[in-house]
Design a protein that fits this description.
Hypothetical upf0131 protein ytfp; eight-stranded mixed beta sheet; 364 residues; alpha+beta; globular; hydrolase activity, acting on acid anhydrides, in phosphorus-containing anhydrides; transferase; AIG2-like
Length: 364
């Protein structure tokens, strides 16, 4: 088989196949009359027939029927299927291609750049995809892939996180990990042991955690008019808890998309949810929403902006079925809500007290 795109990345290919490669199974190769282009819809390429083209890749031999089944499962979710081709050296091979109109192609594929920017995330995503092999159809996995990729990007961001708390550096041994549920979110169950403060080892512990992507939260603040903007929408947590107030007031918030920084996501979410263009961001805090049970990690900001009367209204992305009402609240009323515990969303309360501490500086 000839691989010209992401599967040229050996760590990713080994994840898909579920095994390591032996010496000599991979050699460099070229496919004439084809050009490899980057796809605008995602960080992966598409192969396009072109008379003067020459696609670089690797040739892999010795693949078993199980290997082919795993490759079909992974590639098929992106609508890539096998065709026969003849390589530059005369070798007859098979290669995965998609219909010419399936994806929007852009510039020529830069494999080295992809490895640097997307290789780690793609390996995390491929690991989750292949965990479903034999359990879910490739079409079911393809439908979940935006969430899979977001969770993978969160793991990339997690690898860059070090709060500097000067805490115990005890080792944790994962004995087994099971994906108990996968949908819009996911739940993992783990068996583990960890080092204790007294130098011993804990017994085997059975634990579980909720898997979610990183999120950016931003409180828009107008220092001239001295008021904030909060959004109001139906939330699943209060619904599941039986809260009498299912619609909640909270900051503008959203998942950090793959490739985004938390700051980029904050600017984007402000535009999408409230049509606001933020002037600048002030970092409030960053940390786990509830570290005992969830991977959810918040990046919280106050966004300096202009908040005229007409900015309030109903918005949100139709494609995500959002129904969001924005509300303008004076700083004094906002703090009064905080003082009487009327801000049921704890990040909002944290932002309120941060703003109270920094308000004079921002207004000056």
């Amino acid at each position: 088989m000839f691989f010209y795109g992401t599967l040229r990345h050996v760590p990713l290919l080994e994840i898909v196949l579920g095994r390591r490669f032996s010496e000599g199974q991979l050699v460099a190769g070229f496919l004439p009359e084809f050009t490899c282009f980057a796809v605008q819809e995602g960080p992966f390429p598409s192969l396009v027939a072109s008379a003067q083209g020459r696609a670089e890749g690797v040739v892999v031999s010795g693949l078993s029927d199980d290997d082919i089944a795993r490759l079909d499962y992974y590639e098929g979710g992106f609508d890539y299927d096998l065709i026969d081709v003849t390589l530059e050296d005369g070798t007859v091979a098979q290669v995965y291609v998609c219909a010419p109109d399936r994806w929007t192609t852009g510039a020529k594929w830069d494999f080295t750049g992809w490895c640097s920017d997307w290789g780690e995330m793609s390996c995390f995503a491929a690991t989750e995809v292949m965990e479903h092999f034999g359990h879910r159809t490739r079409d079911e996995v393809a439908a979940m892939f935006p969430q899979i990729r977001a969770r993978a990007w969160s793991k990339v961001l997690g690898g860059r996180t070090a709060a500097g708390q000067d805490v115990f550096d005890g080792q944790v041994e994962i004995l087994e990990k099971r994906r108990a549920y996968t949908g819009f979110f996911a739940v993992d169950e783990v068996s583990l042991r960890h080092e204790r403060f007294d130098g011993g080892k804990s017994p085997v512990l059975e634990r579980s955690y909720f898997v979610a992507g990183d999120a950016s939260l931003v409180l828009p603040y107008d220092p001239v008019r001295d008021r904030v903007l909060l959004v109001e929408q139906m939330r699943m947590g209060p619904l599941g808890r039986g809260d009498t107030e299912i619609w909640q007031l909270e900051p503008v918030a959203g998942r950090i998309d793959p490739g985004e920084t938390p700051e980029m996501a904050a600017f984007r979410e402000a535009r999408e949810e409230t049509s606001l263009t933020l002037t600048s961001l002030e970092t409030v805090a960053k940390g786990y929403a509830t570290p005992g049970e969830s991977t959810c990690y918040f990046h919280m900001f106050v966004g300096v902006t202009d908040l005229p009367d007409e900015i309030a209204g109903v918005g949100g992305l139709e494609t995500e079925h959002e129904n969001i009402r924005s509300r303008l609240i004076s700083f004094n009323d906002f703090m009064a809500m905080a003082e009487r515990q009327a801000l049921a969303n704890t990040p909002t309360a944290l932002m309120a007290y941060w703003l109270a501490h920094h308000r004079s500086r921002l207004r000056s």
